[in-house]
């Protein structure tokens, strides 16, 4: 029983994700009804500046979180990778549904793969993580920033502005546009963003009724994996200024506590000339994230983080 007010961004991807979550929740609770509240965020309004320069991830979630805190909405569906490592006081992630494909994908003219792209090809991405890893693999590539929702970016590729663009497989799959994919980039070439491919359903920490509804929709292996990734991100204070990636898996078929988690973390220089990567295993996701972050920091990632931060202040 109950009526839930659901906050969502207005982009095609956001609406598709929110509708999908509502459909799933209706199957878990046949009595429940849902009302969508569309919210335009700062990240949606500012389209002409590179994200890392205007305040990063928080831009897509802040107004939505305020509406939760004000009680105008009861829960909100986000792409987990758009969420900052720390949530505002009073809010929690009530459910993390099962993750879909975490990989980055290449969309290119004539369906070329990364290896087939011509010398000096122009790649559209505004993600430091993606450009650093692409340059590490193919230093000849030229990178140019591209903003806008998925549909805008694909239009810019089709208009001939780029030889290729990089997007997340997950977003394309959710809006049924996976037919546009030229190549799934291997994880060891492009380590995904923390939380990529997973959704987060955020609600008030003291809203038992909503937490009860959402709990049924939580997927423990995904929660363990993204908890390890977010703990890694948090330890390195990775805003959007530094190329950072992480990807964790949980052994197939296991879904309990004490499950073995494998986490790979990555920090790179923006030009891709230095890439620090480490893989470790453990059963405590938060501790594993800290451990991988600390080892990377010791091996040189700390200097990179310091240097990039200084350069950005200058
Ligand atoms: N940066 C925007 C964003 N946030 C979430 C997704 C979709 C993928 C996901 O849910 O992880 C995308 C698009 C993209 O990176 O291609």
From TrEMBL:
Modification S-(dipyrrolylmethanemethyl)cysteine occurs at: 240
EC numbers: 2.5.1.61
Residue intervals of the Porphobilinogen deaminase C-terminal domain: 224-296
Pfam families assigned to the protein according to its UniProt record, in alphabetical order: Porphobil_deam (PF01379), Porphobil_deamC (PF03900)
Gene Ontology MF terms in the entry: hydroxymethylbilane synthase activity
Xref: InterPro entries: HemC, Porphobilin_deaminase_cofac_BS, Porphobilin_deaminase_N, Porphobilinogen_deaminase_C, Porphobilinogen_deaminase_C_sf
Gene Ontology CC annotation, any one: cytoplasm
Cofactor: dipyrromethane
Free-text cofactor note: Binds 1 dipyrromethane group covalently.
Keyword Transferase tagged: yes
CDD domains reported for this sequence: PBP2_EcHMBS_like
Complexes and interactors: Monomer.
Other remarks on this protein: The porphobilinogen subunits are added to the dipyrromethane group.
Stated name of the protein: Porphobilinogen deaminase
The organism's taxonomic lineage, starting at the top: Bacteria, Bacillati, Bacillota, Bacilli, Bacillales
Gene this chain is encoded by: hemC
């Amino acid at each position: 029983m109950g009526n839930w007010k659901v906050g969502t961004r207005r982009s095609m991807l956001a609406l598709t994700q929110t509708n999908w979550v509502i459909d799933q929740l209706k199957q878990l609770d046949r009595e429940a009804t849902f009302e969508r509240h569309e919210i335009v965020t700062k990240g949606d309004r500012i389209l002409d500046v590179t994200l890392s320069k205007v305040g990063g991830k928080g831009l897509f979630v802040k107004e939505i979180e305020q509406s939760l805190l004000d009680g105008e909405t009861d829960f909100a569906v986000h792409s987990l990778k758009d969420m900052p490592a720390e949530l505002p006081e009073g809010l929690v992630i009530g459910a993390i549904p099962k993750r879909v494909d975490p990989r980055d994908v290449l969309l290119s003219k004539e369906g070329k793969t990364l290896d087939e792209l011509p010398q000096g090809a122009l790649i559209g991405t505004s993600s430091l993580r993606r450009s650093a890893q692409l340059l590490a693999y193919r230093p000849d590539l030229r990178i140019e920033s591209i903003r806008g929702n998925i549909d805008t970016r694909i239009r810019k590729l089709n208009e001939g502005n780029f030889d290729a663009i990089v997007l997340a497989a997950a977003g394309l799959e959710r809006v049924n546009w996976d037919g546009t994919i030229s190549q799934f980039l291997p994880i060891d070439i492009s380590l995904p963003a923390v939380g990529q491919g997973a959704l987060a359903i955020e609600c008030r920490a003291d809203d038992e009724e909503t937490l009860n509804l959402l709990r049924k929709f939580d997927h423990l292996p995904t929660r363990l994996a993204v908890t390890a990734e977010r703990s890694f991100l948090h330890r390195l204070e990775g805003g959007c200024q530094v190329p950072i990636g992480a990807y964790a898996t949980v052994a197939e078929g296991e879904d309990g506590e004490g499950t073995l988690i494998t986490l790979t973390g990555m920090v790179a220089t923006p030009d891709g000339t230095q890439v620090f990567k480490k893989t470790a295993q453990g059963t405590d996701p938060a501790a594993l994230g800290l451990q991988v972050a600390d080892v990377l920091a010791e091996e040189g990632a700390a200097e990179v983080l310091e240097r990039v931060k200084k350069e950005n202040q200058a």
